[in-house]
Amino acid sequence: MKDIYDILRQWRKRPDANFALATMVRAQGSSYRRPGARMLICEDGTTVGSLSAGCLESEVVECAGEVLRTGQSVVVSFDTRRRFGCAGKIDIFIERVSQSFLCEVAACLNARRTCFAITTLEGSFVGEADSFLGEANGFPNNPFVEEIFPPLRLLIFGDGPDNAPFRSLGQFLGWETIEIIDANLFSIAPDAWTAAIVKSHNYGRDFVTLQKLLPLELRYVGLIGPRKRRDQIMTELLEVGVTVNAGFFAPAGLNLGAETPEEIALEIVAEIQRVFAAGSGLSLREKKIPIHATLKGVDGPALSKR
Length: 306
Prior knowledge:
elongated; single chain; alpha/beta; 24% strand; 2 domains; Rossmann fold; five-stranded antiparallel sheet
């Protein structure tokens, strides 16, 4: 999803410019990115987003220049089995992207609403996906449909220098990080794409914060601290009638052997990513099925949920 957030950020800087948009609409076999990967190409040749590990981008930029000159969309296919390190084939649709498409996606994300980006040979637009969900992937005969979610919002309760790694990692991932010192001043309405970290390192403040957060039933609420302290807080929470649900992670983080604040932040951010992306957290070498999950087999879904 970060690609689209970065693309919109670039578009806002130059709202009157012409851009080409390259969208991966089909992948057969292995590929570094999966359908839904996007790259924006500016008139001066600069790009935002990616379609591969850097193998294809220069050729896509060259094709995009022609698309910008003529206004004619094209589908470009790459057989990565022969030329690159992946064992597959991908199709890239390049269009002169419409202002209305970017405006509508931006409006949905600003309002923290999901939307469906529908790509056909006529271009990309925001619309309803219900009529396409049952179709097999077969662009250009069938539209490519991707559900676009608002950026993950990470609420950090507590102050201190250990907030800096969370800010850095969140920015790198395209997340929206918000630091809250006093939970009593918390007034943000959380949604399905909101996670929280409780790290005031003060028992009373952490207790008050969890008392407010846990009834919201967020998908992820992480508490930094030892197990003994967690057990004490949970006991007191239960005594005052607060239910501790499956979205409560304490101690927060995956076991990566962390020691420094930066490593601890990595453990926790990785756990949040696992929860929201429904990953297993196992080493990929232990996975016996293809790395990338799809809704309709391994060769690329009609609806990409990335």
